[in-house]
Design brief:
Blueprint (H helix, E strand, L loop, with lengths): L2 H24 L9 H5 L18 E2 L13 E7 L11 E3 L2 E5 L4 E6 L5 E6 L17 E3 L2 E5 L4 E6 L5 E6 L14 E3 L2 E5 L10 E6 L5 E6 L29 E3 L4 E5 L20 E6 L5 E6 L19 E3 L2 E3 L1 E5 L4 E7 L4 E8 L6 E4 L6 E3 L10 E4 L13 E3 L4 E7 L2 E6 L22 E3 L7 E7 L4 E8 L7 E4 L3 E4 L6 E6 L5 E6 L9 E5 L2 E8 L3 H14 L10 E6 L3
Parallel strand pairs: 1-33
Antiparallel strand pairs: 2-39, 3-4, 4-5, 5-6, 7-8, 8-9, 9-10, 11-12, 12-13, 13-14, 15-16, 16-17, 17-18, 19-20, 21-22, 22-23, 24-25, 26-29, 27-28, 28-31, 29-30, 31-32, 33-34, 34-35, 35-36, 37-38, 38-39
Length: 575
C-alpha cells in the first residue's frame, strides 16, 4: 500500500469512528441515496450535479427568493477552506448534506443548515505533480457515494457519510501530462470523466467506469488513430500528442442515451504544425453512454491557432425557428460566436450562429455546415505573428452559461474588447512537458481595443428569436459562472471587485450585491431546507482569472489586486 493511501485510510478510519458523535451533535437526517431516478428527475430543493440537471441549464425552480425581495438577502453562514487558488466548484446538496471540492483535491462535507463540518477528505498529491490549473470543479453523487476526479488523474469513490475511500481507479499516468479538474458525470450506471493536459502533449479522451465497482467500461479518444474516421485530418504522427482535452462535465440526453462533451484545441497551439481540420478538436462530440461510440460531432472551428478551447458542454435547449420546434443545443463559443444546433440520434445539424462579442477572425460561416472561413492575416503560425479578437481566453471561457426556460432567455458571462497577439515558435515534444509552441509578445500578448469602456458583460439572449435582449457591462473582466432561478433572478460573481450579484432576469438590472473575501469564480447553486431557500457559492480567485488580471494590469498599467483564499458563502432571506 502506498504512503498516501495508508494515510488516507487512517484518516478515514478515524472519521468513521467519530461519525456517530458528529451526527448526533448536528442532528442530521438519514442520508437519502441518490438513485438513477433522482438524477433523471432531481427535486428542486436539491442540487445533485454540476449544473443541477442533465441538460446543463443551471436553473433552479425555487422562487422564494425573487426579483421583488432579493434585495433583502443576507449571509447566513460561511466556511473558510483554508486554501488558496481558484475555488470553482458548485456546492452539491442532497437533503442537508453539502459536498464542496477545493484546489488540491480536498472534499468538504458540510451540514447545509449550519455550516458545520461533517468530514474532510484530503488527497495527498505526488511531490512531482505539475498543476497548471490548480482547481477542481466538483463531485458527483450516486447512491451513498461521492465521486472525485483528481489532479493526479485518479477517479475516487468515497462513502458519503464518512469520507472513507471505497475504491480509486487510475485513469491515466500523470507523469505523461494527464490530469483532471472536472466534476464526473454519472448516467446509465457509469461514472464518466474527461482528461485535461492539452498543453502537455496528451491525447485526449473520455472514459467510463462502473459506478459500483470502478471497473473500466469504455474509453473514447478525442483524436482518431490512423484508419479511424477523421484520422486523415491529422498528418503523420501528430495524432499521438495532439491535445484535444475534455475539461468540463458533459450534458446528457436520456432519451437518446447520448452524452455531449466539449473538446479543446489541438496541440501544439500553432495550426501549421498539424495541417488539416484536426478532428475532433474544438468540437462538441456525442457519445453513446452504453458503449462509448462516437455517434456525431460538430466542429466549431478547424485547425485552431488561437487557443479557443470549446470545452463548455452545450445546453440542451429546444428552441423555435421558422415556426418549428428544434430539438436543440446551444453553445456560447470561446471563439465569440453563439451556436444553435439540432441534436438527433446519429447527427448534430448546424442551425445558425452569430457573434456575441467583437470577433475579427471569421469572414463567413457556411449556412449549411456551419464551417467558418478565416481572415488568414488573423491566424498565428510558427514564426508568424498575428493579432485577433477576442483574446485567447475567448468571448466566454470555461464559466458556464445558464438558461431560464420560462423567460426563454440564455445568460452568457462574456468578455469583450480584449484581444491577443501571438507568434508561434518551434517546439519539441517531451512527455509531461509544456507543448504549446507560443513565443513571447509585448505585454503578455494582450491588448484592449481602443475607445472601449468595459471588458466584462452579462448578456441575455432569446433562444427562439436568436436576438440579444439586454447586456450588463463591467469595467473588469468577467469570470463568473451563472445561476438562473424561477424567481426571475440571475446570480453571478466573476468581477475583480469581489462582488456577488443578483440581476433582474428580464432587464439585467442589478438588484443586490454582496462583497466577499475574494473574487468569485465558483458555480452558484440554490437549495431548500425546511421550506427556506438558500443561495450558495464559493469565493476564491485564482488560475486564469488571476492570470487574466495580471495581463490586464500589464496592458493598462493598472495595479489592481484581488486577494486569494477560499470561502463558501451561503445566503438567504432573513427570518
Amino acid at each position: 500500500m502506498s504512503k498516501h493511501k495508508s494515510i488516507q485510510l487512517a484518516v478515514a478510519t478515524f472519521l468513521l469512528s467519530c461519525w456517530s458523535i458528529i451526527a448526533l451533535a448536528q442532528a442530521l437526517p438519514p442520508y437519502n441515496p441518490v438513485t438513477e431516478e433522482r438524477l433523471l428527475n432531481p427535486e428542486a430543493r436539491n442540487w445533485l450535479m454540476y449544473r443541477g440537471t442533465y441538460d446543463s441549464h443551471g436553473y433552479s425552480e425555487l422562487d422564494q427568493i425573487n426579483s421583488e425581495n432579493v434585495e433583502r438577502m443576507v449571509p447566513v453562514w460561511s466556511f473558510s477552506t483554508g486554501l488558496r487558488e481558484g475555488h470553482q466548484a458548485p456546492p452539491i446538496v442532497n437533503d442537508g448534506y453539502m459536498y464542496v471540492t477545493t484546489p488540491q483535491n480536498h472534499i468538504l462535507a458540510i451540514n447545509a443548515r449550519t455550516g458545520d463540518l461533517i468530514w474532510r477528505y484530503v488527497r495527498y498529491l505526488p511531490e512531482d505533480l505539475q498543476q497548471l490549473h490548480p482547481t477542481n470543479r466538483g463531485v458527483a453523487l450516486y447512491e451513498d457515494r461521492v465521486y472525485l476526479a483528481t489532479v493526479d488523474a485518479y477517479l475516487v469513490a468515497l462513502d458519503a457519510l464518512t469520507g472513507e475511500v471505497i475504491w480509486e481507479q487510475e485513469v491515466e499516468d500523470y507523469n505523461t501530462g494527464y490530469y483532471m479538474t472536472m466534476a464526473p458525470l454519472i448516467a446509465d450506471g457509469k461514472v464518466m470523466v474527461g482528461v485535461s493536459g492539452g498543453e502537455l502533449g496528451i491525447r485526449g479522451f473520455v472514459a467510463a467506469y462502473d459506478v459500483v465497482s470502478g471497473a473500466a467500461v469504455w474509453k473514447t479518444f478525442t483524436i482518431p488513430a490512423p484508419g479511424e474516421p477523421g484520422s486523415e485530418s491529422w498528418p503523420g504522427d501528430t495524432w499521438q500528442t495532439g491535445g484535444v482535452p475534455v475539461w468540463l462535465t458533459g450534458s446528457y440526453d436520456p432519451e437518446l442515451n447520448l452524452a455531449y462533451w466539449g473538446t479543446g484545441n489541438g496541440g501544439p497551439w500553432m495550426g501549421d504544425t498539424r495541417p488539416g481540420d484536426n478532428l475532433y478538436s474544438s468540437s462538441v462530440i456525442a457519445l453513446d453512454v452504453t458503449t462509448g461510440e462516437l455517434k456525431a460531432h460538430h466542429q466549431y472551428h478547424w485547425n485552431d491557432s488561437w487557443d479557443w478551447d470549446e470545452v463548455s458542454a452545450p445546453l440542451l435547449i429546444d428552441f423555435q425557428r421558422d415556426g418549428n420546434t428544434i430539438n436543440g443545443m446551444v453553445h456560447p463559443g470561446r471563439n465569440g460566436y453563439l451556436w444553435f444546433m439540432e441534436r438527433a440520434a446519429d447527427q448534430i445539424n448546424f442551425v445558425d450562429a452569430n457573434p456575441y462579442v467583437y470577433q475579427d477572425v471569421f469572414t463567413s460561416i457556411d449556412p449549411v455546415t456551419g464551417r467558418p472561413e478565416y481572415d488568414m492575416t488573423k491566424k498565428p503560425g510558427t514564426g508568424y505573428e498575428a493579432s485577433f479578437c477576442p483574446s485567447l481566453w475567448g468571448g466566454k471561457d470555461w464559466p458556464p452559461a445558464a438558461f431560464n426556460p420560462e423567460l426563454r432567455l440564455l445568460y452568457i458571462p462574456a468578455n469583450d474588447n480584449v484581444c491577443s497577439t501571438i507568434v508561434g515558435e518551434e517546439i519539441q515534444y517531451s512527455p509531461g512537458r509544456s507543448y504549446i509552441g507560443r513565443g513571447q509578445s509585448e505585454n503578455g500578448g494582450f491588448f484592449v481595443r481602443p475607445g472601449t469602456d468595459h471588458i466584462g458583460e452579462l448578456q441575455a439572449w432569446n433562444v427562439d428569436t436568436g436576438e440579444r435582449v439586454w447586456t450588463q457591462t463591467f469595467a473588469s473582466q468577467n469570470w463568473g459562472p451563472v445561476l438562473s432561478t424561477a424567481g426571475n433572478v440571475v446570480f453571478m460573481g466573476g468581477t475583480n471587485d469581489r462582488y456577488f450579484r443578483a440581476f433582474d432576469a428580464r432587464s439585467g438590472e442589478i438588484l443586490w450585491q454582496q462583497r466577499t473575501n475574494s473574487g468569485i469564480t465558483g458555480v452558484p447553486v440554490s437549495y431548500e431546507l425546511d421550506g427556506k431557500q438558500y443561495i450558495a457559492v464559493q469565493s476564491g480567485w485564482g488560475v486564469d482569472a488571476e492570470r487574466g488580471q495580471n495581463v490586464i494590469n500589464m496592458t493598462t498599467g493598472g495595479t489592481h489586486y484581488v486577494p486569494q483564499g477560499g470561502v463558501i458563502w451561503v445566503f438567504a432571506l432573513p427570518d
